[in-house]
Amino acid sequence: MLLSNFSFLEKWPQLADLGTKAEEYLYSDTKAALNKLRIFGEAFARIVIDCEGLYSENLKNASLSQLLYVLKCDGSVPKELINTLHSIRISGNPASHFDPDKKSDIKQALDLLFYAYELGIWLKQTYDDYEFDPLFKNRFRMLMNNCRKSNHL
Question: pTM higher than 0.70, yes or no?
């Protein structure tokens, strides 16, 4: 069994599992992969809010959009990451709703998978191990290039 690109997130097993599942479903069920990535984005936001001590009872049932607003106002997450999370949110929302006529885009899912990976690196370096060196980064890029060469993208 291949090691997941998200295995370094062992401190946050839910994120590691969601990222791994998104990788597994990428080609067999792209909608499921996009859905997992959307959930990854929300879990990521909730973890950062918790790490920053921003959690309040009002946020218990907050939408991802509301969570991102809290992070944006607090300034604890760089603007680029907020934008990345919005991309994951917007792209993942349709995958969460059944539409048999809507095909999911593998290239879009692969791009979002990489964004989630980058978010994971930021989380690891910010809240766990600031010296963390993502050894899998080159492997992930090779995966993307191989997919493009094999006409999956």
Answer: yes
